[in-house]
Amino acid sequence: xxxxxxxxxxxxxxxxxxxxxxxxxxxxxxxxxxxxxxxxxxxxxxxxxxxxxxxxxxxxxxxxxxxxxxx
Length: 71
Prior knowledge:
two-stranded antiparallel ribbon
């Protein structure tokens, strides 16, 4: 499910394109959803999060961890 924020549950919205002659055709608006690593109960987890939640600080980003191969 790519166009759904797992934090605020924002999803697709529907409406109409309206032409100059006022003809209406169906269309959808999708939130700007990014797949990011966030901390959930102290564990890093990948979630689909909208950019509004990222910008407002509703989630805390998980920092990348060093693997044992690099150390």
